[in-house]
Structures are given as structure tokens and as C-alpha cells.
Amino acid sequence: MQNATYIDDLLSLLREQESFVVTSHARPDGDAIGSALGLMHLLDGMGKRVTVAFADPIPVIYRSLPGVERIQAALPTAASSMLAPDVAVLLECDGFERTGFGRIAFDHMGAGLTINIDHHLSGKTFASFNWIDPEACAVGAMIYDLAVASGAKITADMATCLYTAVLTDTGSFTYPSTVAATFALAEHLVESGADANKIAQAVYFSNPPSKIRLLGAALGNMEIQGTVAWSWITQEEMSRADAAVEDCEGIVNYLIGMAGVEAAVFLRELPSRTEFRLSLRSKGEVDVAKVAERFGGGGHRSASGCTLDGSLDEAVTRIVAELQPDRVRSVQRLAQ
Ligand code: 5GP
Fold first, then answer.
1. Where does ligand 1 bind, in terms of residues with CB under 6 Å?
2. How far apart are alpha carbons 88 and 123 in whole angstroms?
3. Could you tell me if 190 and 316 are in contact, meaning their C-beta atoms sit under 8 angstroms apart?
4. Under a CB-based contact definition with an 8 Å cutoff, are residues 95 and 125 in contact?
5. 319, 324, 326, 328: CA torsion to nearest 10
6. Mutation test of ligand 1: which of 252, 304, 309 has the most ligand atoms closer than 8 Å to its C-beta?
7. pTM beyond cutoff 0.85
8. Nearest CA owner, ligand 1 atom 3
9. How remote is the CA of residue 304 from the centroid of ligand 1, in Å?
10. Could you tell me the sign of the dihedral formed by the alpha carbons of 120, 301, 316, 238, in that order?
């Protein structure tokens, strides 16, 4: 099916329904938050009742987005609201679990319909309505297309949220998903009231000192083997830097930013101290979505994530072996 058909069907569906819960993935990033708030503004304009909920806290750098104060920390339940929402919309998720709320919370909420809007190659058709476009540079860009097709005015608030989504999920317009249409979209959003400088100030120049301290520790742990670079942060290092989980965002980009490095991984020790959360990046040769999927995670060809258990040494050994070009080539041969 063409994107235009998905958009037409989705708009009919949105127009028919009255109440919506919008959510996205755990440990939300700029696209998760920007696209959820962008959709909220669009639905507001259509006269719908909208609740936005995230399981994890909103990182400081996104807390000035218009409408952020409406984000709730829990899904509505039959006990908390008189009526179950008509629709639950999940953005950037490959299943209910990825929201961090768990499947049961969705069952308790009792929405009649579920909508899945995603741009991951590893996206899954788990909802009643699924629109997955791996070519889209961000889910924010899909919401933008939806808004334009609906004939709605792109308000300054909506534009600010969607611009933030696109800016962050294209790595500041640097990833391969950045094409001419991305700049046309950005141009329209800025014309509609998104303040590119103010958004960049919030996202890139408002980091807490803990984040920079943590970056120092992570870069001190850096190792390189052939074309693979890795680094990690332990719980102890997190405490020493007085850091929050969100302070780990972006560290992996320094590793993949090195000349000669084709794949990079950043490992964050989880509070259980028996598991690590991994952020994987590639310059294109290594498909890190496939690597992450082998460990139960997912993402894009050049940016993905997953969780590994075991000690730091075990986790590093397993993931670095998967990221070596020889290993990647032999897996690709087997798959053919
Ligand atoms: P990050 O390293 O920035 O957390 O994630 C990079 C990309 O991989 C993002 O698009 C993110 O949504 C995706 N991703 C990270 N972890 C997971 C995971 O556990 N499952 C899936 N399906 N995608 C993930």
C-alpha cells in the first residue's frame, strides 16, 4: 500500500473516533516526544479528546516543548477515567511492551482500536492499524504528512514539536534518511513558527553538567578493535557523576564519529548490575538493526538498541564479535 493510502485510511479513522491516548517508547527521545506532542496538537485541532502518556521521565532538553506539561506518567485505567479511550496510538514502537507500560496496562485501558505509526525497519504489525514507513526520516515526518493531508493549519506549537522530532532523529540532518524532502519539510515547519535556533539551544546547549561529567567517564573507558569502538558506564560511574539515564543519550555518537570506525556500541549497566542496555551505531556497512534484533532489540540499519545480560566482559565479547565486518559478512552470506 502507498503512504497516501495509509494516510487517507488513517485520517478517516481519526475523524470517526473521539478520544485518544498517544504514547511512544520507553526512555523517550526527541522523535518519541516531538511526534507524540505534534499528533496531540493535530488531534486537539480536530476537536478530539487527547491524553499523552510516557512510562519514563521526559529528558530535561525536551521539557520546554509546547504541551509537554500535559504528558502523564501512566495510561488511563478504567478506574481513573469514566470512559475507555476509543483509540490508543503507539508511535515508534514494535509492540506494546516497548512503551514501558506493559501489555497489561493496555488491556486495562481497554481502547477499542490500536494504531501503530513507526519508521523502523524492524517495525511490526502488532496493532489494529499499522503504518510503517522505514523510508521516513522520523515519525515526526509521518505526523507532518498526516497533518498536511488533513488540511489542518500547522500551528507554531505543532511545528516546534515536529521540527524537534525531525532534527533529533536525523542526527541534526546528517543521517542517510536526510533527503531533499527533509529540508522542504524543515523549511515549512520553520515558516509555520518553529524557531530553529531556540530549538537547537534547548536540545544541544542545555545539557546538565552531569551529562558532560558522564561523557568524560565514558570516553575514558573507550576501546577500539579494528573497525569497532566501544565504551561503557557502570552504575558506580553513574552515581559518581550524579547522572540520570538520559545523560547517556548521544555518547555513542562520539564513538562512531571516529575515522576508521565502522560500528560502535555504548553499554550502560542497569541497576540490577546483571544486564546492560546497548546503543549501537554504524556508518552503513554493518546493519546494526539486524545485530540488535538477534538480541531481542531493534532499530534502524545505522542506529539500534538492545539489552544483554551477563558481566561487562561477557556483554562486550558477544557484541563486539557480532559487529566485526567478517562476522557481518558471513551472517549476510548465510541469509542469502
Ligand atoms: P538509542 O541507541 O538512541 O537508544 O536507539 C537507537 C534506535 O534504536 C532508536 O530508533 C530506537 O527507537 C531503537 N531502539 C533502541 N532500543 C530498542 C529496542 O530495544 N527495541 C527496538 N525495537 N528498538 C530499539
1. 25, 29, 92, 94, 98, 122, 279, 297-300, 303-306
2. 17
3. no
4. no
5. 60
6. 304
7. yes
8. 279
9. 5
10. negative
Residue 243, classified by CB atoms within 10 Å of its CB into exposed (0-12), middle (13-18) or buried (19+), is: buried
CATH code of domain 209-335? 3.10.310.30
Find the DSSP H helices in the chain. 3-16, 30-45, 103-109, 139-150, 156-169, 180-191, 196-204, 209-220, 235-240, 251-256, 288-294, 312-323, 325-335
Nearest CA to ligand 1 atom 13: 299
- With contact defined as beta carbons under 8 Å apart, do 44 and 52 qualify? no
pLDDT in tens, 258-315: 999 999 999 999 999 999 999 999 999 999 999 999 999 999 999 999 999 999 999 9
pLDDT for the residue 216: 98
Task: Provide the residue ranges of all domains of the chain, joining segments of one domain with +.
Answer: 2-204, 209-335
pLDDT tens per residue, range 193-231: 999 999 999 999 999 999 999 999 999 999 999 999 999
Pick one of 3.90.1640.10, 3.30.1330.80, 3.30.450.40, 3.90.226.10 as the CATH number of 2-204.
3.90.1640.10
Q: Which atom of ligand 1 lies at the shortest distance from residue 307's CA?
A: 19
